[in-house]
Amino acid sequence: MKAIAVIPGKKHSAHVVDARRPNVADVPDGRGVLVKVLRVGVDGTDREINDAMYGRAPEGEPYLILGHENFGRVEAVGPNVTELAPGDYVVSTVRRPGRRPAARACAKLRHASDVPCIFCGQGMAPPATPRAA
Hints:
Layout: E1 2-6, E2 15-18, E3 33-41, H1 44-50, E4 64-65, E5 69-77, E6 89-92, E7 104-105, E8 112-113
Antiparallel strand pairs: 1-2, 1-4, 3-5, 5-6, 7-8
């Protein structure tokens, strides 16, 4: 399969690769999900990765594939996946590195997240300001 990838730590290394097709067995504990990507976006996070600001390749791989925001259809699931089934349409997202300690709460449901809420579609509320004692 064709993909746009970078060599982590090397600035401006984006290039097209012939990547190995993943398999649900690549993910431990039977939790793999194989998704056929139908649409993909390359955004500011990918630009920052291509600028070598952060990002690392999966263990044993020489490159990191860009395009973490995508829409696709589930083709196969591991034996311990109960939340999805082949044929389901999915949208993936990613948490940006280093944001977990300052994660904000979803403005509507108030659950912690470092990305816009995928359940209610609301933006993030500002972090709570601690009160002086």
